Amino acid sequence: MPYKDKEDKKAYDKQYYENNKESRNKQIKQYQATPEGKKRKTLCDWRRRGLIETNQYTYDELYETYLYHTNCEECDVELTTGRFITKTTKSMDHCHTTGIFRNILCHSCNTKRR
Asked: pLDDT per position in the chain (114 positions), as tens?
């Protein structure tokens, strides 16, 4: 469908979004429940928070390391994941100045390190 100008396209897109909001949200939730969707969301969160790749790790390698790490590298407590942050929640420790990844720690050790 050809549009007369950018404003017509914008109006069409807005109307399309309103008409298909529920089905689009359902598709997004389904995708985010897949392993690929979870990985993409996690990597986007890390980038947004300033974590950057190093010469040692790419984002994919960091994600794999994060998934299979079960204990804190500092205090050796068993790490947990979940919706709420506890002392043992898994954290990606990184330098807030440079953004470079350092370790996978529990939340308690990560906050002490700042």
From this structure: 577 788 889 999 899 999 999 999 999 999 999 999 999 998 998 888 888 777 777 888 889 988 999 999 999 999 998 888 899 999 888 888 888 888 899 999 988 876
- Which of 74, 84, 104 is CA-nearest to residue 92? 104
What is the torsional sign of CA 18, 38, 57, 110?
Answer: positive
Structural contact between residues 78 and 89, judged by C-beta atoms closer than 8 angstroms: no
Domain boundaries, the chain: 51-113
User: Model pTM?
Assistant: 0.68
The CATH number that domain 51-113 falls under is 3.40.1800
